[in-house]
Design goal:
Layout lengths: L7 H14 L23 H7 L5 H7 L9 E6 L13 H9 L2 E10 L5 E3 L6 H4 L6 H4 L4 E4 L8 E3 L7 H4 L3 E2 L11 H4 L15 E2 L3 H10 L5 E6 L20 H14 L10 E2 L2 H10 L1 H4 L3 E3 L6 H16 L4 E3 L6 E4 L5 E4 L1 H8 L3 E7 L8 H4 L17 H12 L3 E4 L2 H11 L11
Parallel strand pairs: 1-2, 1-15, 2-8, 8-9, 9-10, 10-11, 11-14, 14-15
Antiparallel strand pairs: 2-3, 4-5, 6-7, 12-13
Helix pairs in contact: 10-11, 13-14
């Protein structure tokens, strides 16, 4: 990790100086239950994966940990909440499940409403697939593109943005499993269509969140939890300026400032907040204007999805470090590649090697966002695209994670099912990134 410290005493002094310079925040919530008194429940999935592994020292090690004890770990980050395989994303219920799965850091993707409210939604324009907005005739009429049923030549379609409605209207919605039925001829039919390897069993009426309510929720959870809010970009579709656009006289910079000010208003210690964005300008603004937050800002990098842009993304890494970025967060297919005979081995990629050489810490995403690993090559699944020839069974989930930890050196992993990552992290004593390393 990047560090300029010569010993624990200097670290303690710098932390004390930072606290004195920022007297507005609470270092710890006074109501917190000690982490050791909060029982983690991981359910059957980690054991299913271990049982599917081929015999190896890694399998034996993971089997040795089957009785715990399990505890909260910041290595395990709840992606869109942490239980998105079964529970509507960005909802209270999802975050509660991710917390029970031991995720020490919980995510809220922050989108903007028509009245400049900040709410938890993965995209400015996903309400038509992640909520029941189309079932509300009044709110559906406000959508950027109204529902159009499928016909002989076209799929069913709609486009509903958080910027189409007010915060109060947003709070009247139910979160649902992300998906839609492209063949739907009615709004009711359009509500379904989540991947078959997910479930709609808990898709009753997920409780949507604002950024403020997410902060209050995470701050109230038993054990000591941290925050990783992600600021979304200001336009859903750059070719269609009317979609997902900001209110008048409101800019991306205003948005980025209000985003951080929400935590300042709630008196949250900036060392508990790992702000994220795909937009480099947001990261640089935080580094300049909110250095207590910016020093551990997470730059989400999705700029290398083609062979040509991948080379450019690798080349850019040293300059990001020079500009004050400490943490890079690409999808994990950027970090691994196939090697060995018939591409049956998984090894660190040029991106992973370059990021480490540049002095950047690496956090990655998103574990268990995919279906069964037996299908990744046939379906061209994104997260395994760089090493699909080497993946064959669900038992390899932990093999992939082990390579990311031991060979790449990732500091934390976002996951749609935090229990899986928590199990591994507990077994190997991984605690996640430490804010004091970025002071």
């Amino acid at each position: 990790m990047p560090s300029s410290f010569s010993g624990p005493a200097i670290v303690a002094l710098l932390v004390a100086q930072t606290v004195q310079a920022l007297p507005w925040y609470h270092t710890k919530p006074s109501h917190q239950v000690p982490a050791q008194d909060y029982y983690i429940s991981l359910g059957p999935r980690p054991f299913y994966i271990v049982n599917n592994m081929t015999e190896s020292p890694l399998k034996k090690k993971l089997q040795s940990c089957e009785n715990g004890p399990f505890k909260i770990t910041d290595f395990s980050i709840g992606h869109r909440g942490g239980a998105t395989l079964q529970i509507p994303e960005e909802s209270v219920e999802n975050a509660m499940a991710g917390a029970r799965f031991g995720a020490g850091v919980l995510e809220c993707d922050v989108s903007l409403t028509a009245d400049k409210g900040l709410v938890c939604r993965h995209s400015l324009c996903d309400l038509h697939t992640t909520t029941n907005i189309l079932l509300n005739e009044t709110l559906a009429a406000k959508c950027s593109i109204p529902f159009t049923p499928a016909n002989a030549t076209s799929d069913a379609s709609a486009l509903c943005c958080t910027t189409d409605i007010t915060t109060a209207e947003y709070l009247s919605l139910c979160a649902k499993m992300d998906g839609f039925n492209a063949s739907a001829t009615s709004v009711a039919d359009y509500q379904h269509g989540a991947p078959t390897w997910r479930t709609e069993l808990y898709d009753t009426c997920g409780t949507v969140q604002t950024l403020d309510s997410y902060i209050d929720l995470v701050d109230s959870l038993p054990g000591y939890r941290n925050f990783t809010p992600e600021l979304k970009s200001g336009s859903y579709d750059p070719t269609a300026a009317s979609y997902g656009t900001f209110p008048a006289n409101y800019t991306q910079e205003d948005y980025a400032r209000d985003f951080v000010q929400a935590f300042i208003h709630k008196k949250i210690d900036p060392q508990r907040v790992w702000v994220q964005s795909f937009n480099p300008a947001d990261i640089f603004l935080w580094i300049k204007e909110f250095p207590a937050f910016g020093r551990q800002a997470v730059y989400l990098d999705e700029s290398g999805d083609t062979p040509e842009t991948y080379v450019a993304a690798v080349a850019l890494l040293p300059s990001l470090k020079t500009k004050g970025v400490n943490i890079i967060a690409p999808p994990f297919n950027y970090l691994l590649t196939a090697g060995g005979p018939q591409n049956q081995s998984i090894v660190p990629s040029s991106y992973a090697i370059a990021a480490t050489a540049a002095g950047l810490d690496i956090i990655t995403w998103s574990f268990e966002r995919s279906g069964p690993l037996t299908e990744v090559k046939a379906t061209g699944e994104y997260y395994y695209s760089s090493f699909a020839d080497a993946v064959h069974t669900d038992g390899q989930f932990y093999e992939v994670l082990d390579i990311l930890v031991k060979d790449v050196g990732i500091k934390a992993m976002f996951s749609d099912w935090s229990a899986t990552v928590t199990y591994y992290a507990n077994c190997f004593g991984l605690e996640g990134p430490k804010s004091e390393d970025y002071i």
